[in-house]
Amino acid sequence: MRIRQIEMLLEKCAGFPDPDARSEQYATPAVVAARFLHEADCQGDIRGMRVVDLGCGTGILACGAALLGAGEVIGIDWDEGALAVARENAAKLGVEVTFLGADISHSREAIPPADTVIMNPPFGAQRAHADRPFIDAGLASADVVWGIFNSGSRSFLESYIRGRADVETVISATFPIRRTFAHHTRDIMAIPVDFIRLVRNGEEEL
């Protein structure tokens, strides 16, 4: 399936019914989700794989992975309201995704092993280091982790994951954020981001 086809299908996905600013619940735009998943698929990390979407929200990345032919997809999030929408989105697109309720910050053992973890973690604008539990959980679950991070995060990531994994791919992109919360002053703000592929190196016990 071509990237534009994936994007058009993912545009049907509904967003957060009641987004939480502290948790940075921004809907991932279809154009970003489609390109992100396409890049992961081009490296053999989606099709036929067991894929876990950490902090799946309303399921756009999980649904996209299923559309691309993942062997099994599991989405995990703490927000039951968002998960209800995610299940509706999966049904709308006719894909099979298992959605589980868990807070990865406190229940890492609830995250199943995977071939690939995908995630759009909080950028840490509201809570410093909010992305770290996602990185830790991702590397505990899979040998390969794809994440959407603030542009320029490579140095931080290389330092944080040293001895556990390596940064193997960095792809620049733009993440348009629509006016969602009261502190937003623009209708759309384009945030520079990086799609980053982490590969576990096995040097240190996780």
Automatic annotation (TrEMBL):
Which SUPFAM superfamilies does the protein's record reference?
Answer: S-adenosyl-L-methionine-dependent methyltransferases
Among the GO molecular function terms of this UniProt record, one is: transferase activity
Q: Where is the Methyltransferase domain?
A: 48-120
Its name, as the record gives it, is METTL5 family protein
The record's listing under Pfam families reads:
Methyltransf_31
